[in-house]
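Protein entry
_____________
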Amino acid sequence: MTATAITSVMYGCSPPPRRRSSPADHGSSGPTTDTRGREALSLRPFDAPADSPLLRSWIASRADLLTWAGPAFTWPLDDAQLSAYAAEPDRHIWTARAADGRALGHISVRGTRLGRVLIAPEARGRGLGETLLTLAIDRAFDELDLPELDLGVYTHNTRAVRLYEKLGFRSARVLPDVEEVDGVRWSALQMRLPRPRR
């Protein structure tokens, strides 16, 4: 397996959200919150022309780009690369939006591979990464009917690893020294989540 399949996340961990009825459920456009007071998210299909500029603004450096997508893109990230990414066959790509329409996250699934997970910089540390992942996992197992999910995460991204473990992912193997960034070798952890029994 090569490093091209590696992806990661860039946010903190927090307890799982519990959704409650919100104004959005009853036709209002007011903010939606879960029972812990965090904003709820919904997944909308990624619209490359509209969403790419904002997504690019969340990735401030080559290291950020590599952390987000492994070596699949080149720095600097541009709209042409994101358009090609959006056109990949069998890739499901979503923008996570708050009830008021603000884009706060990004995630994708291709085959059984979960990846390209990103929370907007101004929204990190509020538990939205867990909400985003939970929504995507539900889509993968329910709507896409996948038998399992797998992902890659760089081993130094310990907050992401802990969050994935919290959501049920388990380590399958370590790929040592798959990338070098500013003279530092990065290793990757491959993780797997089987479909829950029904």
About this structure: The helical segments are 48-57, 62-69, 79-86, 128-143, 158-166. The beta strands are 42-45, 91-97, 103-110, 113-119, 148-154, 170-181, 184-194. Confidence is low (pLDDT under 50) at residues 1-32. The two ends are 31 Å apart (CA to CA).
